[in-house]
Design brief:
alpha+beta; Alpha-D-Glucose-1,6-Bisphosphate, Chain A, domain 4; 25% strand
Length: 189
């Protein structure tokens, strides 16, 4: 083999190694609970609250919606006291991953659907249809597709934020519905 061919082969190997080193690493994808049928990110559960009527649970659901969300009249879409069910479309802010100085910038708003329904002794919740508010509908499930040409590492951070928000919301709901609010006796003085 001539020296020119060996040098050319070494140059090509070096260039390909440098090019491979320049590719941004893909963040480890965050896996969130997805519905097996709809394939949508879905947090759901049925929680037992022994000895509490559906009417009382519905009252607690209503109180929770009105205390948890800043503008409950904008959030609540269905408020059915006979079926003991509330459906809302709340939104929350997302932030971009921190830059080199650690500063986070606004990444927009994510909207989702929350459904809470009560029966005697239990209630069911569902958080689903998460979407990033853009010019057109952008389902948050797209953030999990690491093979997509439009995928960026910021999506992994967005999924982490979404998961944290959903878990905090569910914990707040569970706390409000499983613990009776103490009522002040105005006649005891």
């Amino acid at each position: 083999m001539s020296m020119k061919k060996i040098l050319a082969a070494l140059c090509l190997i070096s260039i390909s190694m440098l090019a491979a080193a320049q590719k941004p690493s893909v963040a480890t994808p965050v896996t969130l609970p997805t519905d097996s049928i709809t394939k949508l990110i879905t947090y759901e559960g049925v929680i037992e609250v022994k000895g509490v009527s559906a009417d009382e649970l519905y009252r607690r659901i209503n109180d929770w919606f009105h205390s948890y969300y800043k503008n409950p009249t904008e959030v609540i879409r269905t408020n059915d006291s006979t079926a003991h069910k509330m459906i809302g479309k709340p939104r929350f802010r997302m932030s971009n991953p921190p830059d080199k100085e650690g500063t986070r910038t606004d990444a927009g708003i994510t909207q989702y659907t929350i459904t809470v329904a009560a029966k005697d002794g239990r209630y069911k919740y569902e958080l689903t249809e998460f979407n990033w508010k853009q010019l057109s509908y952008f389902a948050c499930e797209k953030w999990m597709d690491t093979k997509s040409p439009s995928y960026t590492n910021a999506y992994s951070d967005f999924l982490t934020q979404l998961d944290k928000y959903a878990i905090e919301t569910i914990a707040s709901l569970r706390d409000a519905l499983t613990h009776a609010k103490s009522v002040k006796d105005k006649d005891s003085w």
